[in-house]
């Protein structure tokens, strides 16, 4: 189904393989197509089997969104009935879907999490794209990075991956959550090959900002980033965004995907708006289970109760060197 417009980076064989290799998640596809035929439709899930957070189907873990690849309403009805049957068997705590829109005709679905998604249209010229950037907070920062003579490096070498991961750990520490294990990013690199790029901004040889992007079809996707707060005024991250946009435009891509933002992250949402990106609401839907079970979905959902406050306190006071090990233990249960 590679030619289907709704097929995203997160449906790709490379993304599914990275999930399998890193976390052991096994993919499962609901389709009306017979085994010997090409897929005419599909709803793709991964099976998460965790003693900590339960057994569930998620479409798809660590993915910003994952559209239901079904065009005909009658096919969707058949597939949703099959999913309901799976839930009735009691094998799964719940089923979670992450489409760009709601699932039509589902009375038993409920919103589990709200995000905002931002994507920039690259049709305008480079000059026009720059003029569309917020003058004070974006244009000025890009020019600041240029005046500071920040160096820009890109590639997939181990040294760039090491620099990126160190910056990611610093950022996750500021957010009071552990980072995903380093092997996740190494596996993404190995699975996506030249489509993935690590971008690093340095000041006098010191990495100060890092970004990981993946190219899929006619879109460049920003997926992960991190920075050193001691150099936050130098515009390192702004430089990386602008370099990515310029590259995508020069390569003839149609859009730059800035990814999702949690609904409570007002500062991040404002930051992405100021790049001239189009904004849409992104809702994760759950079928089955109970509302009480939602607190095990992500660290963000745990924020609402005492477990969240305790976790944030522990992670905030934990030595930075221990955070990656904690992430390695926990993330396979999160999905």
Describe this structure in words.
With 335 residues, the chain is an alpha+beta fold. The protein folds into two domains: 9-113 and 282-325, Aminopeptidase (3-Layer(aba) Sandwich), CATH 3.40.630; 124-253, Gcn5-related N-acetyltransferase (GNAT) (Aminopeptidase), CATH 3.40.630.30. Helix content is 36%, strand content 26%. It has eleven helices and eleven strands. The chain has helices at 13-23, 73-88, 126-131, 135-147, 158-174, 182-192, 236-250, 266-273, 299-302, 306-317, 323-330; strands at 26-30, 43-50, 54-59, 95-97, 109-121, 151-155, 196-203, 206-216, 219-227, 255-262, 278-287. Strands 1-2-3-4-11-5-10-9-8-7-6 form an eleven-stranded mixed sheet, with helices on both faces. Helix 1 runs antiparallel to helix 6 (182-192) and helix 4 crosses helix 7 (236-250). The longest helix has 17 residues, at 158-174.
In short:
It is built from 11 helices and 11 strands. It is an alpha+beta fold and 335 residues long. Strand 8 (206-216) and strand 9 form a beta hairpin.
Q: Secondary-structure map with pairings?
A:
Blueprint: H1 13-23, E1 26-30, E2 43-50, E3 54-59, H2 73-88, E4 95-97, E5 109-121, H3 126-131, H4 135-147, E6 151-155, H5 158-174, H6 182-192, E7 196-203, E8 206-216, E9 219-227, H7 236-250, E10 255-262, H8 266-273, E11 278-287, H9 299-302, H10 306-317, H11 323-330
Parallel strand pairs: 3-4, 9-10
Antiparallel strand pairs: 1-2, 2-3, 4-11, 5-10, 5-11, 6-7, 7-8, 8-9
């Amino acid at each position: 189904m590679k030619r289907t417009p709704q097929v995203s980076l997160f449906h790709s064989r490379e993304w599914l393989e990275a999930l399998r290799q890193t976390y052991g998640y096994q993919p499962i596809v609901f389709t009306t197509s017979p085994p010997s035929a090409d897929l005419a439709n599909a709803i793709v899930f991964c099976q998460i089997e965790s003693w900590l957070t339960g057994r569930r189907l998620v479409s798809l873990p660590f993915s910003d969104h994952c559209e239901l690849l079904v065009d005909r309403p009658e096919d969707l009805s058949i597939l949703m009935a099959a999913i309901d049957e799976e839930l009735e068997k009691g094998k799964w705590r719940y089923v979670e879907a992450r489409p760009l829109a709601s699932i039509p005709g589902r009375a038993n679905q409920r919103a589990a999490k709200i995000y905002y998604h931002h994507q920039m249209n690259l049709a305008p010229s480079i000059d026009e794209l720059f003029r569309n950037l917020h003058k004070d907070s974006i244009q000025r920062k890009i020019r600041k990075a240029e005046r500071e003579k920040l160096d820009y490096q890109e590639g997939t070498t181990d040294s760039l991956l090491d620099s990126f991961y160190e910056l990611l750990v610093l950022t996750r520490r500021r957010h009071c959550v552990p980072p995903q294990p380093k092997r996740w990013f190494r596996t993404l690199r190995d699975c996506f090959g030249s489509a993935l790029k690590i971008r690093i901004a340095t000041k006098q040889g010191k990495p100060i900002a890092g970004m990981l992007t993946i190219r899929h079809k006619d879109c460049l996707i920003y997926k992960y980033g991190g920075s050193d707060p001691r150099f936050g005024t130098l515009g390192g991250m702004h430089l990386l965004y602008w370099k990515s946009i310029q590259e995508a435009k020069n390569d003839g891509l149609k859009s730059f995907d800035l990814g999702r933002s949690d609904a409570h992250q007002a500062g991040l949402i404002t930051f992405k708006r100021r790049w001239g990106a189009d904004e849409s609401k992104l809702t994760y839907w759950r079928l089955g289970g109970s509302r009480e079970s939602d607190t095990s979905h992500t660290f963000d959902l745990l924020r609402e109760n005492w477990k969240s406050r305790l976790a944030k306190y522990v992670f905030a006071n934990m030595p930075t060197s221990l955070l990656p090990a904690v992430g390695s233990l926990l993330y396979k249960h999160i999905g």
